[in-house]
Amino acid sequence: MNDVTVIDFDAVAVGRRVLSIEAQALDRLAESLGQTFSQAVEVLYKAEGRIVCMGVGKSGHVARKIAATLSSTGTKAMFVHLSEASHGDLGMIDQGDVMVVLSKSGEVRELADTLAYAKRFTIPLLGITCSARSILGRAADVCLLLPSAPEATAEVSAPTTSTTLQMALGDALAVALLERKGFTAQAFRVLHPGGRIGAMLVTVADLMHGESELPAVSPQTPMQETLFVMTEKRFGCVAVCDEHRRLQGVITDGDLRRHAEGLLTHNAGEVMTRNPKTVPPDLLAAEALKRMNEAQPPVTVLFVVDEDRPIGILHVHDLLRAGVM
Length: 325
Prior knowledge:
CATH topology of the largest domain: Rossmann fold
Helix content: 40-55%
Number of domains: 2
Strand order of the largest sheet: 2-1-3-4-5
Largest sheet: 5 strands, parallel
Radius of gyration: 30 Å
Order of helices and strands: HHEHEHEHEHEHHHHEHEEHHEEHEEH
CATH class of the largest domain: Alpha Beta
Number of helices: 15
Strand content: 15-25%
Number of strands: 12
Distance between the termini: 53 Å
């Protein structure tokens, strides 16, 4: 059996050290935000065209991610590689666009053509860099400075902490911009129709059964006829509405059991439970499921009401089929 050399190495300790270094840097970044950050958000907010995120190397990867985040939150954005910009891709950038250029040093040689183009066509330029005195820092209309912080790989100085800071600052800009624009969950859903995010942003109105499928009777309806409506509609319940179609109560299987003795001698108004749990049509489906689960006892069906009038009905199976969790 071959001898195995045992290395005194604690991977968990290394991981914790890296995360601690980056967390401390993020705290410094948060503390450093001020009026310049507000100016940057306003420049992005007033952009008539697209937000063009640019970088090279690791900063290029971060710039691509920032562009994707902006696009997914309702802002027209795209990524242009700084090297490709000098070979024709600058032609994709128009007046009315805003450039967001990332470079840790602010001195990479690929910057020259892009900075000249921005100046020539008066395109607003936001720089994200560690040095205000760098080429990028001096050329930027708004310069967002990353705080001085060690990379997590001190001996080889590979981009770690610096790219984390770039990524986090990009997220901060994107979130501040979407709140500045009043971007809503419903609008977010339009851009994310598929997958888990799309499912979580579906509304009750998207999943409910409409009025044609709504089981409803009046308070004076005899229970024999009420039972026929409950059976026909197959939701295991029925809405009891007054002459103005306002919801007065509901009858469920539980109500039937409580009134089992002499049930057919009653009318719907005498058997119903008043003040039932309901939901509005614009409520997120995920919230409707939460309300079902938190009800005591839990419920499987909710009537959807608008101005006290039932307009639909929602079953827990509708939510589960749509992937709402």
